[in-house]
Amino acid sequence: MARAALTKDPVLDTGQGRALSQALNRALDRALDQALDRARAAKRSPPARHAIVAVAALAGGGLAFEIALTRLLSALLASDVVGPVLAVAVGGLGLGAARAAASDWARRREAAALAALVGAVAAALVGPTALWLAAATDAGAWLAFVPILVAFTGVGWAIAATFAAAGLAGAALYRTDLLAAAAAAALAPLALALLGGLHGSLAAAAVLALAAVALAAGRGRWLALLPATLPLALLATALSGQWGLDPARHMPGTPLAAQLERGAVLEASRWDATARTDLVRAPSAARYVFMDGGAGSLVPTADPTPWWRDVGAFAFAAGPSERVFLIGSGGGLDVAQARVHGAREIVAVEVNPASVALTRSLGADAGDVYEPPTEVVIGDGRRVLTRTAGTFDVIMLANVVTNAAERHRLRLTESRVYTVEAFTTYLSRLRHEGRLALVLYDEATLTRALTTALEALVRGGHAEDHGAALLHAMVVLDASAQPSVPILTVRRTPYTREEAVAAARVAEARGWALVLVPHLLTPSALAPLATGEAGLQALIAASPDVDLRPTTDAAPFFFAFDPGVPRDAQRAGLLAAALLGVFVLVPATRLVMAGRRLRAARVRASTRRLWTAIGLGLGFMLLELHALGVVQQVLGHPSWSLAATLGALLGGGAAGAAYAARRPGGVRRPVAAATLAVMAWGALAQPLATTLTPWHEHLAAVPMLALLALAAAPLGVPFARLLVESAAAAPGHGPATAWLGSGVGALAAGAAALWAAHAWGIPSLALLALAAYVSTALLQVRRARPSTDTSGAAHPTRSA
């Protein structure tokens, strides 16, 4: 192992100075060689048992707590909080690592135990605090992000301090970290199905408390036991029913709370990895199923009179409906409508199993809608349709929307069902007079669905141009609903005038308003397109304040209507740029100030290690976010996809860390290997996912996750070796600084990914991950520089 020669300094530009410079270089070489020898010896001396237990509890409990929070806060806030939770979690871990790197005391075992204890107690208090805030303050549960930040700061501090104490055994400890996180990711859906978001967060806090007990020593362990029991005490009282989430008090402003305020009765609740699902009976005796307190899905009654005029029935009344495929069947209203209109074979696909279970529990009161001849499939509708044989008279999507439990905000289940590629698939599975029907929310969603459908008709070869494609579409409106509810139907074949008249008469007989009827009625905004005076792009450009472009698999943001990059994504991009700017410019300033002084070599080495950690964290997180979308294409269900992706990614990384623990060495070659692995993933993942789409999910998961695990294995080696190198070069604060850099990179990646996905599309995340690893690999290249001894002979110095 060698060190690049010190840069010439005017003060040292003498024979004595050059000799001193060469002596310092040799001393640094010997120090690093001795560090490698100690690292090779360390592989025979595993980390202390308390460190292994603590890191496993911190990594597994921390990830489980993060996933449980997405479920708890999504229910309390009735919005997608995955992005904010991820940002606060990664930011807190980085802050904790920074605290551990700041002083020797912060890296002592008792300090790590205290940090873990504070993190566990703060995590245990998040649930009760969020409930109290939701009921007592206008800001609601958003203020709960304060204890969340405290909790993850404590976890990050404890992890960084434990790794700092482990020194050269850090690679083996990193393997434990990844294995525990992989196990937590794989078990999270099951745990949430058993415990729910609130109880799951308390159980995760109890696991974090185990880390505090493991890190405490002597009498401190007994002192830590009392506060460490707080999560278990809160969990026990919550499970016994002494306290919990009351939708009427803790979910103000949601449609569910509004129903309860009007006298509705909460009949049953279930909580799993997909959502909190509530069954409510209104004063009118109508029942609704709510997901995370959002818009309710009407549960049909055996008597069709109460729901006969629901506009969704137009999909089945407008033509033959013997065989139908329903995506997002929810409380079963679509199923009941299909049965009333003569459907003999029904495939109902629902991503939320609790909705189906609660509706089934009503039996005859709900018309037994989920009993034969209805075939119920839990999963992603588009994915299930691809592997289902035959064609259909009706393929229907009725208000398909859900906030799935994902760590990223880039691709929700509903987004992939509203794309040009998805519509092309739907149209290809329709019979000659079959209809694709979409019940939508408002004018914006209706217009975007129409533009997406017109583009799909042209791409699929069903229409010559977008104007001709209008003859394939029909829109009716239920103006009696508040707000009005539109339905769009699209056919592979154009409507004849007689068919359009017949369908219009069906709509008028039910009291629905006509909006778009081929050959008969065209809205003024669509007239130029229908007559050929303007194209689809001109129609879209006529509304500059709203983005109505067709959505694609590459950018599946159906519900994002801001022109260009949305404001939230812009802010995320600025945050990423600011983070990376600070952590690049500040160390670069140190390098400039070091100039040509003797300590410049040491500053360069520490700066390289920090930038390497940032690059590795950046690349790993970007690859994770890209992999989540690809794996969901294969597995379909968002919660299962999340668990499988994190399990394969972290499990593969753990295998790489295990290799690094057995074979100590430098960082340069592992980073190069990781770069090649990312390149291979980017080249093979999407083609493999496309090939596996027709397979059953269970069979398709094997090769897809095997590829991900194989790609992830090389990614686990560089950071494990960097931890050892940091411990050798800077005992104590070196590993903590590496964790800080990794956290900064991961946080910047999460923010940058949101911006990049909207600006360039989701596939760009794989390219950005590759760019991060390539940049990190270039950091490892240190050119040999000639040094001249006192005799004037040139001697090239070695490079590591």
Written overview of the protein:
With 800 residues, the chain is of the alpha/beta class. It has three domains: 43-254, Growth Hormone, Chain: A (Up-down Bundle), CATH 1.20.1250; 293-541, Vaccinia Virus protein VP39 (Rossmann fold), CATH 3.40.50; 562-800, Growth Hormone, Chain: A (Up-down Bundle). The chain contains 29 helices and 14 strands. The strands form three sheets. The protein has an eight-stranded mixed β-sheet with strand order 7-6-5-8-9-11-10-12, sandwiched between helices. Helix 23 packs antiparallel against helix 26 and helix 27 runs antiparallel to helix 28 (733-760). The longest helix is centred in the first third of the chain and has 46 residues, at 170-215. The radius of gyration is 30 Å and the shape is globular.
Give a short synopsis of this structure.
The protein has 29 helices and 14 strands. It is an alpha/beta fold and 800 residues long. The N and C termini lie close together (6 Å).
Q: Which fold name is given in CATH as the topology of the largest domain? A: Rossmann fold
What is the overall silhouette? globular
Q: Which strand order do you get reading across the main beta sheet?
A: 7-6-5-8-9-11-10-12
The number of domains is 3
State the helicity in percent bands. 55-70%
